[in-house]
């Protein structure tokens, strides 16, 4: 059952009508189900949304967030007005909403009719209120929104369909919705309310209407003519009255991406900017006829869910609106991010078209890829939904509409086509003008799925041929040598099918993602085919859809060899299946499954997700292996009846007659050997490895080459628990066991070739020269930075440099390239957060991020803003989540260390430091956050930096603070599309205070200038302005005649300043920015003026006035404090052993952990000393040990400050340790007792004083304290002398 908090959060994602139905039904036992009611429907469509999206899309990624902000803001106003009248927001449809007014069921038909009339009056009345208040509402600068409203009335059906993986969908259908859609379409501009004939007949006596000229069955509402009906919040009352509703039933209607955030009451942090591939799908069914076709609708939605979920996509919305029956599907939504989401989207689209056609349902699909806003849309109160918004979503909708017009099943954008071109072929359909787009847009269509990767693709992508290959040329030659040896032995007849004991080679090419493995193999294939044109090369690579099937890695090989076998015989397909299966129906069925024959895929979809094979796994592999061996025997012309045989020599008749000495031929043409290239080896299942092993054992004229990754394993969704070091451990075990079983064959020679990418800077320069045409940068350090950030991966380096060039961070001029000032500034801050990272980084890190728990993900997002290196005290200071306490924080960080996302660097008695490990993980986390989230965290970090000691040099601390304040207060201008940074007063104050502290810390001279410059001073007679050079140090504000500072005109002691008031002076008919400073005493020409005086200063700008004011206020307070300390001594309350900047409980945890590490160090040290003692038989005096643990140096590490960032402690002797066994609690009690005794001396020695001491004035207190010095020293003796291992720095 739902708690009160859950009632507020969960029920907001489901309409009141659905909640009421679930409460009455208790449980939906079987889908589909239908709910009937008679009521009023309103369809409200925001006018100006197209202009809004076109304008905001020009702002880049932030534009998607601003679109969501604008819609949320306007929707909130709409929802507020609708809720007051009792309306229930049934569906959000992008820039539109469908509203239904819940009816009250009466006893008689007459009462029900009258109740419906009242509801209809309420609905139209609320529409008039909306138009009077919200027409032409300014949401953002120069952007105004209005709303067009249409009404319908009658019998409504709410249908409940779907059910795959427990995910249900609800949908409103019926004639009232059709009326409302048509009514809204008749509105020519925002601000109009159009009703159908049925609504007009119901409420014509209460409103003034105007009949539309172009359609007499629709009317425009003009105004109200009778008294208003009393408002009632019907929808909200339904939810408030509910109690005891099943929580699980509500959860079936809520997207999986939201549930973790709802559980910790942080749904606002679910909003993200993500790279999504969006499918807009128009279904060719009439959902309005739910009475007669309910089962057909259920079947259609069920097929849709299966096709999407097979490819691990997310069904975001199902609705019937003005565009028909529409689905919105996202690939890349949490928690289902993959490296190949665009490919999955197209595979799902193709599967949808095929499967829906089998049940007589036509569909049209538009596909687009891009950065979009994903998160909650609606209001923070009664009603909201999880939506995807952005330019890519709008583009997908336009492509869907174009597909309907052009009668094309699938149309896709250019980005999607480019992302999928290595797996799926597409071609340009046409250049078209789309609504909301400037200029012609290229639109693509799918041609066919690639079964073999083509060499020209890699040549075009890499930009050069194999002669210019960097980092893999030696690997190519190494593999080519093995291949040529194999082919030469075959030509010379030294390899015989009958000789089963001959040694066979197995090649495994390994390397990380993006290192160029597949490219090397394409170069290799090109060379082999050039030198040996008759050799048969079979290739296989796995897409996401094929991963889930048995024999995933060998399916394409089997299908290719089956087609060749068909061509070598006169058998039909069915006869050949019977032959190789020996008539065994089980083997035949399994082979059909492997080769996707006889519509096996349809059976799989129909039974998903419960499809299972009843065959024993081991028995199945053995039976399939027997059939596959027969296929290869047919190819090699073994064990085939003569009457069914079609010799290879006969197949060669139509081919070239010229055969040179390098060809695989002699006097008699033999069957050529086979080279099998298997890509994506790391994803192969047990059956694939078994078949590979079987083929190697049975056929020595087959050479197998595997290509595998050794890093960046993509985590399967079923294994995403986020609590193990390798969430993909089961697949890794399959891979390890499979490879081991191959290389352990008695007659196999394994050849492991490892690609390690770009070796050094010189090789990187050569690589850039070949690909981009340059190898020099204006700053040589850029080469080192690129080498580190790309992790030596050629593909990542290409994407990284291309991104910098495309975004104008690097400017190419002739043969050299220079970094822009913006890029240099980011390098100085050692930050990459603002640089748009390459898409390949999202592909590598996205699945890892989505595998994390909600709490761990939020912690990482906050940590990534702190820096590449972050400390636990700052992290705990800035996280606003009450669910994360000190212990939970430590446990979460431990889990992230175990998952190799972050690494522990260093700890001391009060703090602990970590840093990010995975390349670009921090940048991926940061750029997935919305700009609002980023600014809020930057603001929190800026506040924390001013409190918590940082392991940086003072100058760098100031720069870091400035950077975070800039990022916190940066805003974007819609007019200019430029980022605007204007520091608030609070930010300026923080920077100035930090700057003053830095100056005073680096220069012990109290007279060092803190602020200086020319200002205007009003003359003594207040008749003119004088130009003066002003200098502020830690004690005085000094005025000079000029900047030579040779002649003083006045000195204002800061501790004697009484007032600092910034004012605006409009004298002399012009505005001036003035500062009024009052002093109780001042100095002129060396003479002390004993009277009060008010000075008036003027500045050229408001910013200058603000800056001088802040300097004066802080330095004045500092001067008074210094004077107090000089006269009365330093007192700090409360006295605390723990730095007050740190969290006390967290510090205690860290101290206990640090004490344990010291104890372990001591034990290790004692063990080593005893070992040395036994070896050398000498006694040595215990040495003072000093351990310094510094961070691993990288280009992005902070400059080390040994006073703060290193651990320093001394090992004490065993006798010293035993000499003081007083418990720590007792030591603290004694220390605090002594400390407060000292404090009592300070406070009580002048309790009888009749006169108060003026702050800053020397009095009798200090003299009396000196008299009691002896007594004070006696009290100090009560403080125990605690032996300390760790030296604390409380500064």
TrEMBL record:
Identification of the protein by name: Adenylate cyclase
InterPro entries to which the protein is assigned, alphabetical: A/G_cyclase, PH_domain
Coiled coil: none
Classification via Pfam families: Guanylate_cyc, PH
Domain Guanylate cyclase stretches: 40-184, 324-400
Organism, as annotated: Paramecium primaurelia
Gene Ontology biological process terms from the UniProt entry: cyclic nucleotide biosynthetic process; intracellular signal transduction
Location of the PH domain: 1008-1117
């Amino acid at each position: 059952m739902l708690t009160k908090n859950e009632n507020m959060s969960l029920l907001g994602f489901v309409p009141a009508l659905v909640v009421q139905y679930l409460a009455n039904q208790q449980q939906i036992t079987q889908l589909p189900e239908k709910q009937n009611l008679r009521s009023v429907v309103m369809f409200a469509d925001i006018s100006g949304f197209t202009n809004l999206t076109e304008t905001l899309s020009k702002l880049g990624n932030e534009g998607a967030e601003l679109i969501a902000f604008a819609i949320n803001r306007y929707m909130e106003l709409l929802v507020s007005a609708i809720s007051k009248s009792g309306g229930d927001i049934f569906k959000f449809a992008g820039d539109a909403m469908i509203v239904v007014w819940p009816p009250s069921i009466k006893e008689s038909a007459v009462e029900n009719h009258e109740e419906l009339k009242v509801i209809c009056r309420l609905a139209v009345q609320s529409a008039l209120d909306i138009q009077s208040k919200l027409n032409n509402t300014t949401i953002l600068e120069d952007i105004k929104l209005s709303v067009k409203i249409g009404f319908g009335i009658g019998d409504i059906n709410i249908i409940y369909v779907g059910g795959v993986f427990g995910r249900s969908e609800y949908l409103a259908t019926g004639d009232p919705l059709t009326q409302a859609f048509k009514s809204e379409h008749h509105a020519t501009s925002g601000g109009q309310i159009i009703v159908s004939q049925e609504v007009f007949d119901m409420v014509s006596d209460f409103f003034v209407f105007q009949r539309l000229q172009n359609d007499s069955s629709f009317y425009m509402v003009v105004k109200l003519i009778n008294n208003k009906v009393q408002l009632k919040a019907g929808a909200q009352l339904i939810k408030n009255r509910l109690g005891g509703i099943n929580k699980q039933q509500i959860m079936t209607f809520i997207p999986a991406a939201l549930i973790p955030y709802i559980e910790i009451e942080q749904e606002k942090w679910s909003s993200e900017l993500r790279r999504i591939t969006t499918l807009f799908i128009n279904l060719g069914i009439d959902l309005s006829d739910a009475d007669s076709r309910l089962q057909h609708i259920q079947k259609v939605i069920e097929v849709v869910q299966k096709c999407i979920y097979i490819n691990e996509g997310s069904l975001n919305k199902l609705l019937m609106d003005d565009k028909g029956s529409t689905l919105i599907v996202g690939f890349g939504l949490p928690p289902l991010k993959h490296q190949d989401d665009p490919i999955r989207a197209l595979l799902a689209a193709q599967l949808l078209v095929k499967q829906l056609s089998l049940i007589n349902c036509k569909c049209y699909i538009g596909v687009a890829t891009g950065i979009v806003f994903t998160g909650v849309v609606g209001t923070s109160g009664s009603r909201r939904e999880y939506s995807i918004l952005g330019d890519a979503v709008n583009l997908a909708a336009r492509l869907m509409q174009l597909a309907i017009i052009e009668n094309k099943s699938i149309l896709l954008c250019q980005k999607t086509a480019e992302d999928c071109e290595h797996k799926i072929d597409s071609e340009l359909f046409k250049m078209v003008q789309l609504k909301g787009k400037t200029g012609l847009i290229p639109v693509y269509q799918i041609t066919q799925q690639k079964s073999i990767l083509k060499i020209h693709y890699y040549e075009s992508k890499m930009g050069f041929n194999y002669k210019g290959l960097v980092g893999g040329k030696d690997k190519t030659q190494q593999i080519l040598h093995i291949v040529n040896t194999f082919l030469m032995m075959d030509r010379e007849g030294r390899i015989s099918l009958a000789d089963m004991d001959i040694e066979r080679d197995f090649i495994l090419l390994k390397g990380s993602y993006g290192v160029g493995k597949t490219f090397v193999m394409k170069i290799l294939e090109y060379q082999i085919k050039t030198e040996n044109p008759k050799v048969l090369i079979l290739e296989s690579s796995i897409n996401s859809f094929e991963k889930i099937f048995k024999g995933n890695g060998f399916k394409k090989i089997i299908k290719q060899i089956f087609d060749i076998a068909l061509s070598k015989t006169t058998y039909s397909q069915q006869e050949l299946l019977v032959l190789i299966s020996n008539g065994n129906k089980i083997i035949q069925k399994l082979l059909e499954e492997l080769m996707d024959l006889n519509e096996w895929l349809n059976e799989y979809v129909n039974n998903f997700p419960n499809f299972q094979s009843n065959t024993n796994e081991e028995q199945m592999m053995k039976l399939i292996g027997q059939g596959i061996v027969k296929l290869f025997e047919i190819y090699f012309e073994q064990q085939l009846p003569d009457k069914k045989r079609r010799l290879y020599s006969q197949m060669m008749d139509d081919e070239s007659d010229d055969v040179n000495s390098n060809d695989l031929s002699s006097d008699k043409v033999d069957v050529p050997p086979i080279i099998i290239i298997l890509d994506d080896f790391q994803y192969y299942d047990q059956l694939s490895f078994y078949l590979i092993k079987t083929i190697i054992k049975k056929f020595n004229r087959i050479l197998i080459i595997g290509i595998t990754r050794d890093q960046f394993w993509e985590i399967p969704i079923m294994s995403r628990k986020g609590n193990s070091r390798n969430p993909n451990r089961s697949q890794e075990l399959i891979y390890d066991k499979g490879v081991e079983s191959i290389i352990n064959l008695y007659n196999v020679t394994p050849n492991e070739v490892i690609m390690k990418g770009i070796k050094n800077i010189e090789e990187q320069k050569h690589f850039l020269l070949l690909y981009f045409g340059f190898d020099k940068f204006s700053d040589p350090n850029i080469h080192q930075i690129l080498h580190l950030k790309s992790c030596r991966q050629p593909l990542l380096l290409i994407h990284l440099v291309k991104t910098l060039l495309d975004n104008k961070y690097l400017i190419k001029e002739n043969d050299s390239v220079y970094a822009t000032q913006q890029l240099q500034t980011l390098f100085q801050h050692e930050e990459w957060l603002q640089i748009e990272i390459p898409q390949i980084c999202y592909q590598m890190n996205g699945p890892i991020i989505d595998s994390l728990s909600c709490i761990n993900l939020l912690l990482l997002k906050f940590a990534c803003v702190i820096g590449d290196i972050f400390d636990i005290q700052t992290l705990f200071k800035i996280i606003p989540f009450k669910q994360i306490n000190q212990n939970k924080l430590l446990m979460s960080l431990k889990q992230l260390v175990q998952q190799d996302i972050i690494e522990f660097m260093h700890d001391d008695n009060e703090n602990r430091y970590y840093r990010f490990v995975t390349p670009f993980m921090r940048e991926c986390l940061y750029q997935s956050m919305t700009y609002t989230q980023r600014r809020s965290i930057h603001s929190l970090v800026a506040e924390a930096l001013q409190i918590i000691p940082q392991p940086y040099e003072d100058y760098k601390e100031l720069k870091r603070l400035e950077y975070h304040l800039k990022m916190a207060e940066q805003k974007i201008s819609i007019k200019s599309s430029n980022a605007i940074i204007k520091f608030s007063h609070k930010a300026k104050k923080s920077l100035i205070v930090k700057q003053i502290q830095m100056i005073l810390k680096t220069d012990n001279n109290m007279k060092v200038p803190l602020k200086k410059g020319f200002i205007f001073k009003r003359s003594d007679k207040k008749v003119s302005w004088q130009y003066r050079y002003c200098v502020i140090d830690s004690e005085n504000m000094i005025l000079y005649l000029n900047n030579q500072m040779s002649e003083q005109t006045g000195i204002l002691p800061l501790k004697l300043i009484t007032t600092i008031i910034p004012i605006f002076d409009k004298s002399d008919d012009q505005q001036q920015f003035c500062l009024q400073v009052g002093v109780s005493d001042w100095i002129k020409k060396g003479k002390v003026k004993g009277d009060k005086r008010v000075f008036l200063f003027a500045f050229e700008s408001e910013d200058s006035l603000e800056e001088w004011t802040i300097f004066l206020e802080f330095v004045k307070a500092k001067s008074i404090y210094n004077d107090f300390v000089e006269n009365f001594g330093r007192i700090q309350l409360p006295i605390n052993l723990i730095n007050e900047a740190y969290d006390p409980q967290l510090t205690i945890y860290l101290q206990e952990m640090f004490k344990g590490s010291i104890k372990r160090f001591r034990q290790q040290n004692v063990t080593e000393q005893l070992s040395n003692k036994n070896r050398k038989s000498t006694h040595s005096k215990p040495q003072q040990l000093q351990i310094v643990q510094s961070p691993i140096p990288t280009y992005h590490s902070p400059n080390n400050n040994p006073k703060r960032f290193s651990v320093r402690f001394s090992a004490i002797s065993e006798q010293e340790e035993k000499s003081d066994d007083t418990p720590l609690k007792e030591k603290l009690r004694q220390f605090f007792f002594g400390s407060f005794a000292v404090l009592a001396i300070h406070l009580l020695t002048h309790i009888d004083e009749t006169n108060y001491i003026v702050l800053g004035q020397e009095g009798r207190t200090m003299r009396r304290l000196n008299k009691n010095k002896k007594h004070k020293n006696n009290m100090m003796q009560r403080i125990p002398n605690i032996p300390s291992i760790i030296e604390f720095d409380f500064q």
